[in-house]
TrEMBL record:
<dbReference type="InterPro" id="IPR051347">
    <property type="entry name" value="Circadian_clock_KaiC-rel"/>
</dbReference>
<feature type="domain" description="KaiC">
    <location>
        <begin position="127"/>
        <end position="362"/>
    </location>
</feature>
<dbReference type="GO" id="GO:0004386">
    <property type="term" value="F:helicase activity"/>
</dbReference>
<dbReference type="InterPro" id="IPR014774">
    <property type="entry name" value="KaiC-like_dom"/>
</dbReference>
<dbReference type="InterPro" id="IPR010624">
    <property type="entry name" value="KaiC_dom"/>
</dbReference>
<dbReference type="GO" id="GO:0005524">
    <property type="term" value="F:ATP binding"/>
</dbReference>
<dbReference type="Pfam" id="PF06745">
    <property type="entry name" value="ATPase"/>
</dbReference>
<dbReference type="InterPro" id="IPR027417">
    <property type="entry name" value="P-loop_NTPase"/>
</dbReference>
<protein>
    <submittedName>
        <fullName>RecA/helicase-like protein</fullName>
    </submittedName>
</protein>
Length: 365
């Protein structure tokens, strides 16, 4: 009180406020002293910030005392999901429900609120976006719709990123802006591999039509990643956003599959309402055939599902591509052979004509 009278502060930090408990003889005296202190500071119109540590094995009721006396309660946790931030109480003003991303870095504390999609206010009249690959566009009935979500699913190494890159290149080549967020490789590696396959993404980057972001999943929370995407969207106003590597996105969430679906739902819905087409590459576990269109039960999010897989034939492996789902418009419902060739990229070679077991990964002519 002497210090307060001398300096007349507008804000006071007591760290931790529970230390006051140990200079009182019992719980009653502690609560009485705390109430007296709070009244004194309120009368002076002084803002008080107090910290307290909670533990799962605490048996005393002092945390509840502190909560009942407070106008606001901010809960910080650090567990399997990383650092999280929740406003449990904010008297008279309210708060955003749920937990939010929290990081402590060199520049200080960073909070990333959970995003919430808004209702569409513009008429729904989508245009068709083409990939620039005539065979792939024909497979999709002309292309994908503006403001749609497309999953490109398949096992590791089958060509999901190459297919997604084809759409980025095709749209950017028409003078429209595109964004790529890469969870599985650096921007340099992505660009080098695309150039080797005849997709000159470097030129598009230089012209400002393609912007690439390499994402380290264990460094960023899902809220921070969502904010990074939305900041880039505000700055560049893209037609297409590619999220390359749903497995990496799941690592950033560090939670169950249902959490992945909820976070993806919120992000993709927010982008769709801006008429942005979202392309997501998704790795499934089965190497041959079709077991599930997407991992983690995320297929309901997709307006389009392009499925890539391997087919076993005479002891060898061939690649196949097909469209399993398209909400708007017709599509070719046959599986086609395809190859990925140096300097030519994705090449489709027509459908498998008689293949009763192709969805199980087998093909006999």
């Amino acid at each position: 009180m002497h210090a307060i009278e001398e300096y007349n502060p507008s804000r006071i930090l007591i760290d931790p406020i529970t230390q006051l408990k140990y200079i009182e003889t019992d719980q009653y005296q502690y609560r009485k002293r705390l109430l007296s202190l709070m009244r004194y500071l309120r009368d002076r119109e002084t803002t008080v910030v107090g910290t307290l540590t909670t533990r799962s094995d605490d048996s005393g009721n002092w945390p509840e005392d502190a909560e009942s006396l407070s106008d606001g309660l901010l809960d910080l946790t650090n567990g399997a999901a990383g650092r999280r931030f929740e406003v449990k109480k904010h008297r008279g003003l309210g708060q955003e429900a749920g937990t939010h991303g929290l990081e402590i870095r060199a520049q200080g504390l960073e909070v990333y609120p959970r995003i919430a999609p808004q209702q569409r206010t513009t008429p729904f009249d989508p245009n068709v976006l083409t990939s620039g690959n005539d065979s792939l566009d024909a497979l999709l009935g002309g292309g994908i719709r503006e403001g749609s979500v497309t999953f490109i699913s398949g096992p590791s190494g089958v060509g999901k990123t190459t297919t997604g890159t084809q759409f980025l290149h095709g749209v950017a080549s028409q003078g429209k802006t595109t964004l790529g967020f890469l969870f599985e490789e650096s921007t340099d590696q992505f660009s080098y591999r695309a150039e080797k396959l005849g997709t000159p993404v470097g030129d598009l980057v230089d012209r400002g039509l393609l912007e690439l972001h390499g994402i380290e999943p264990l460094v960023r929370s899902p809220e921070e990643f969502a904010q990074l995407v939305l900041d880039a969207v505000e700055r560049r106003d893209p037609e297409v956003v590619l999220i390359d590597g749903i497995a990496g996105y799941k690592m950033s969430i560090r939670g169950a599959d249902m959490q992945l679906v909820r976070r993806l739902h919120t992000l993709t819905r927010t982008l769709k309402q801006r008429d942005i087409s979202v392309i997501i590459t998704d790795e499934v576990g089965r190497v041959t055939g079709v077991e599930s269109p997407t991992s983690a039960g995320a297929s309901y999010l997709a307006d389009n599902v392009v499925f890539l897989s391997y087919v076993e034939q005479a002891g060898g492996m061939e690649r196949m591509i097909g469209v399993l789902k398209k909400r708007l418009g017709d599509f070719d419902n046959q599986f086609h052979r395809f190859t990925i060739e140096d300097a030519q990229g994705l090449q489709l070679h027509g459908p498998f004509e008689t293949a009763p077991d192709i969805t199980r990964g087998l093909f006999d002519e």
